Amino acid sequence: MRSGGVFDIPGKRVRLAELDQQVQQADFWEDPQRAQKVMQEASLLRDKIEVWDTLGRRCQEALELYGMAEEDRVLLEELAEEAGVLAAELDRREFELAMSGPHDGAAAILSIHAGAGGTEAQDWAQMLLRMYLRWAERQKFKTFITDETEGEGAGIKSVTVEISGVNAYGLLKAEKGVHRLVRLSPFDSANRRHTSFAKVEVMPALEENLEIQIDPKEIEVEVFLSSGAGGQNVQKNQTAVRIRHLPTGLIVTSQNERSQTQNREMAMRVLRGRLYEIAEEKRAAERARLKGKIDDANFGSQIRSYVLHPYQMVKDLRTDVETGNTTAVLDGEIDLFIEAWLKSNLQDRD
Description:
The strands form 2 sheets. This protein has an 8-stranded mixed beta sheet with strand order 2-3-1-5-4-9-10-11. Strands 6-7-8 form a 3-stranded antiparallel beta sheet, covered by helices on one side. The protein is flat and about 70 Å long. With 350 residues, the chain is α+β, with helices and mostly antiparallel strands. Helix 2 runs antiparallel to helix 3 (73-98). Helices cover 46% and strands 21% of the residues. The chain has 2 domains: 9-98, Release factor (Methane Monooxygenase Hydroxylase, Chain G, domain 1, Up-down Bundle), CATH 1.20.58.410; 108-348, Alpha-Beta Plaits, CATH 3.30.70.1660.
């Protein structure tokens, strides 16, 4: 049971002691709002410390019993069962830690953009959309396509989907980056091998908050006739909304909601999410610089390769996790890649 690194129990004890000292000050309650925050932080720290202390005691007791077990088969079986329970509890706690980001529990906004390559790349973007929709279905998450631009011959040029469910953003942020496909082209009469790229963006679905503030003077709003789903209403009225963020040049669109107001609200959520991701990229780059890391911290770098010819393999380039079951992966079974990335990300915090 490691006590430093991402768990850092000694550090949590030090912080709790500091908070307890603040509580003992005579003027502590003169600022009720600040006092409440201190009490809440102290309570959370106590709970976390107690959890890890309990796990530590159970591990220590199991080790001591194992040393005394010798040839006692019944005791050894009980200890093996306890070891399994402890391992499962540790995995659960590590997952909770991986989901401890400020917006990890929020819904996610996932966008897919076809790379260069015309029909090939657009078909690949469509395949990725199906993969994520199937994954969300397996997770029992709700999905809603807010904006979609169809490809000229097949597939899609771009699509934005809101995916709602517990920890949707915390899980899907593992998918941001460039996805590469190698296959025999179904669009090539010579049946040659092609390589296609698509970029996946993942943002938290943020409502109005103090962290990301958008000045109304810094946006331009355009309404137009929707070409997306939504019934006859969107075909007859200018319900679609396009918002340009002047300081960054970001452009977001929403057209599949039934009213202009709903589309504007959705577009603003997407814009807030993208601005949040830009800020996160800057923070990640600064952390990498301070740690002396030379790898690319940009969320737009290539993360995964899907090879369908001349062999079958999907490999995550960040964690080296791979599988030959490409059919299952493209059908939404991507948890092995997400979980491996989350665990490696925890280790990078050490």
